[in-house]
Amino acid sequence: MYEFDWSSIPGALPYLWIGMVMTLKITVVAIIAGIVWGTLLALMRMSPIKVLSWFGAGYVNLFRSIPLVMVLLWFFLIVPSLLVSLFDIPRSYDTRLISAMVAFSLFEAAYYSEIIRAGIRSVSKGQMGAANALGMSYAQAMRLIILPQAFRNMVPLLLTQGIILFQDTSLVYVSSLADFFGTAYLVGSRDGRLVELLLFSGAVYFIISFSASQLVKHFQKRTSL
Amino acid sequence: MNYHWNWAIFLTETPSGSTTYMGWMLSGLEVTLALSLSAWIIALLVGGLMGVLRTVPNRWLSGIATVYVEIFRNTPLLVQLFIWYFVLPELLPTAMGDAIKSLNPFLQQFLAAMVCLALFTGARVCEQVRSGINSLAVGQKSAGLALGLTLPQTYRYVILPMAIRIILPPLTSEFLNIFKNSAVASTIGLLELAAQGRQLVDYTAQPYESFIAVTVMFMVINTVVMILMHKVEARVRVPGGGH
Amino acid sequence: MSQHRLLVAATCLLVSSVALAQDATGTLQKIKETNTISLGHRESSIPFSYYNDKQEVIGYSQELMMKAVDAIKADLKLPNLKVTLTPVTSQNRISLVQNGTVDIVCGSATNNLERQKQVAFSTTIFVIGTRLLTKKTSGIKDFADLAGKNVVVTAGTTSERLLRKLNEDKKMDMSIISAKDHGESFLTLETGRAVAFMMDDALLAGQVANSKHPEEWAIVGKPMSNEAYGCMMRKDDPQFKKIVDDTFAKLMTSGEAAKIYAKWFMAPVPPKGLNLNFPMSDDMIEAYKHPNDMAFP
Question: C86 exposed, middle or buried (CB, 10 Å; 0-12, 13-18, 19+)?
């Protein structure tokens, strides 16, 4: 039977913490950028201008049809050289973190835009008509009337998507970025204690995601009253 | 941009001989399809069963299903995969673990990835099944019971046939996800489509061709599955059940 | 096709020996503009380039690379040059050098003609033979004993290709597992998923030194190949390459490199404080005596 030896974890906690900060950084950046870009995409898709709605639909369908692992590899191995050869940008910092953040933001935006589009649709059509009747432009109506209501309805879904994103950030493993999971894996393989470190990291992800999802549920109950 | 495009690379023979790089890609595609489809079948069975259990009026049964869903939905797929592949054989009794580890490596990787994807997706299917059943009017269940059907019979003849039709659209998106998620199996060395693509980059130094080919193949899978599922949905749609 | 390849190989050789005209977008210029140099390192290439228990990168190749960084600092008069470190794997290192993520990788990369088409190699810093690591009790003595067995090798290495070719040519019916990095390869061996791990002998010695029970392992087999390690840089950047090459040549001929060698191969090394006891081979002595950047045939 396997003999557990958890002794490599206490000494590694500071590094695991640094890794968790990295994980949270990517998560937060991707949630914010993803929602902003996702909102724009949703508006484009619903726009009466054909070119915009085609672009929005094409973008969302493209990103929703490729695996996240492939998107991350694209941004890790291909996009940097493409940008360099196109714009000749000298890069003076850790491009892996930036490319991971960009990749997650662009990828998640496709998923967020679907949630947001559904949210906007859920606000009754009459409201737009009423806003127009009051002399508001389309943009004003969206910004002042429709979007605030849509977002209030969507918050739980957006947060749930954020929890999924938090878990998905572990896939930066493919670019050897030392996020929480990457650090745990590294410590485990260095000390020959992969079993313990993998179980530990699974437990940490579970505790955070489970607590967060309970909070979302709680929040959902309160707001729906 | 000074990049030497060379699409003919796919027709070039690989260094170890016997096949072309296109052959590598196609064998990767085969693995991706086999993995996703086998995992999907298990996911439907497990998810269907657990989803029903979550709605039955028995604390223990619904409790088991809830624990299953919470565990598998709140840990990253990658962590789950590594636990199936690296951890499980170590925790089993030594003889059993050794038996697993002396299997053909491809089989080990394939089985670990299949079980992982199946249970991961199963938890999501379970939630769709539950919400499908819950969305049915309570009256349907009462009606079934009032007609003298037992609870299992009510599920079998009244609730499930309706629920399945309602949950088909959300299931389509889970079905699409399983193909995409299968690419994670490349991290344990399974030579599925994404892994073959990376290997091709390593061998040929033609990253663009390889990545474009893999991406296009995933898009084709996605499109084909979507078309098929739309056909299925159209066939089983509840007449007049505008949902 | 093969004629075309020969031509490319010949051009590469020419490029590596003849300095081309000044390139305004060269690596040195980029380093100067950004005051930053991006180094690629390995995570578990013991004792060449790996993490110690404080997550710092250490090792023989890492130390040489830092000497080159010192020379660049002096040459460009950038005393506060910022150094960024990026972990790479055998499978992605060439792509990352090419795409500009890292400027130079000193780890455990074999210099061969095929790779010279993609990247430039520095002066040879090490010479290895590709052999097998196995349990002393496994009964495996050489490559021929691997028929029908599970064998692990690190993805993207020369060993991976040699092993696959051997498997095809001799119809050995081996099941080859390609692991992500040397640490994962060793784990595969240690947990019994494979009976042998094929890799460069010095790296195998490093994995043994880091293992739970070093006495259980043996490095066996007649080397399938002898290979020269070099640092990898972008192609066609003679100024950058020259600084690196000159630094290494000076270290080697002055005897300083021999001291660095002794520190990593003939004395206890982190993390377990084990001595690899890996004396310099004749090829190695020769490489130090006459620094050059030629690939081994």
Answer: buried
Superfamily covering domain A24-173? MetI-like (1.10.3720.10)
Instruction: Return the CATH number of the domain spanning residue range B17-236.
Output: 1.10.3720.10
Q: To the nearest whole number, what is the mean pLDDT of chain A? A: 90
Closest-CA distance of chain C to residue A191, Å? 8
Q: Which chain B residue has its CA at the smallest distance from A77's CA? A: B207
Domain ranges of chain A: 24-173, 178-225
pLDDT at residue B141, rounded to an integer: 85
CA distance C49 to C39: 12
C232-233/C120-121 β-pairing: antiparallel
C19 pLDDT tier (thresholds 50, 70, 90): very low
Residues 6+ apart with CB under 8 A from B184: A67, A69, A171, B77, B78, B81, B113
Question: What is the structure's pLDDT at A128?
Answer: 86
Verify whether the Cβ–Cβ distance A186 to C89 is below 8 Å.
Answer: no
Q: C94, B189: Cβ pair inside 8 Å?
A: no
ipTM of the complex: 0.91
Nearest CB to C86; choose among A77, A84, A96? A96
In the prediction, which pLDDT does B54 show? 93
pTM for the model stands at 0.89
Chain B with chain C: Cβ pairs closer than 8 A: 51
Rounded distance between C-alpha atoms, residue B206 and residue C236, angstroms: 19
Residue of A8, A16, A83, A176 to mutate, testing the C interface (most C Cβ within 10 Å of its Cβ) = A176
